């Protein structure tokens, strides 16, 4: 059974959403000029049916909340389904049991044949920190081999913003890259406070400081299925469909699969995958 835990990350998440709301968003009339943006804590407390002192402590990460009370707070803050799920995970509810670090190799070994079964569809296995545990030949042919990236930067968030080849190949990369960060927060739960997450954010700060607002943001969203356009050097534009799923052995891990949209796209990806793999150094 899930046990609620005090969470500074939960408090920061709730506070960020409170500051985004206007009184009119929750049916409150305009009042005198406000010194700070968004709703006041007492307004959220009143809408949620809780005491002001308790809600203040919740934002400060000093108390826990039951599912029912956290649900009431989420409704007061107008959180969507992804936001509610994220809040519940930060509080300790519905947190998937992750494979221990020593079990990552076993997971990668078990999933690798699945990745390899898609010779024309780039695919990658991510752990709960979005570190790359496995990938197939089509992924390396399209984005470059992850083996050329230093181990401490072999992370999907880092690749999306700091890897020159990925950004040059992926048309309109920003919406997908931003969604990757949002989905990481939506599913990470207590992994947000882990030292590995802190290390990834430090590497991002070193290599892409101009985008620090992406990993400093508290917004969350699902990584939904979408069409992705890529333009690899030496071949025509290719349309791919992104989908994702969780391995049964570790629900906190994630497999991303980019499937060619048409037979023409499949033929182009097959040709790309058959080329000799060029060594691509990571952008620093």
Low-confidence stretches: 279-284
Overall 3D geometry? Answer: elongated
Structural class based on helices, strands and sheet pairing: alpha+beta
Count of helices?
Answer: 13
InterPro entries: Cro/C1-type_HTH (IPR001387), Lambda_DNA-bd_dom_sf (IPR010982), MLTR_LBD (IPR041413)
Domain HTH cro/C1-type: 13-84
Protein name: Helix-turn-helix domain-containing protein
Pfam families: HTH_31, MLTR_LBD
Task: Provide a compact summary of the structure.
The protein is built from 13 helices and five strands.
Describe this structure in words.
By secondary structure, the protein is of the alpha+beta class. It has two domains: 83 residues, lambda repressor-like DNA-binding domains (434 Repressor (Amino-terminal Domain)); 174 residues, 2-Layer Sandwich (Beta-Lactamase). The protein has 13 helices and five strands. A five-stranded antiparallel β-sheet has the order 2-1-5-4-3, with helices on both faces. Strand 3 and strand 4 form a beta hairpin. The radius of gyration is 21 Å and the shape is elongated.
Secondary-structure topology with pairs:
Layout: H1 8-20, H2 41-48, H3 52-59, H4 67-76, H5 81-90, H6 104-116, E1 123-126, E2 132-135, H7 137-143, H8 156-162, H9 164-169, H10 173-188, H11 195-207, H12 212-216, E3 226-230, E4 238-245, E5 254-260, H13 263-274
Antiparallel strand pairs: 1-2, 1-5, 3-4, 4-5
Helix pairs in contact: 2-3, 2-4, 4-5, 5-10, 7-13, 8-10, 8-11
Key descriptive features of the protein:
5-stranded antiparallel sheet; 13 helices; 5 strands; 284 residues; Beta-Lactamase; disordered C terminus; MLTR_LBD; alpha+beta; 2 domains; single chain; 434 Repressor (Amino-terminal Domain)
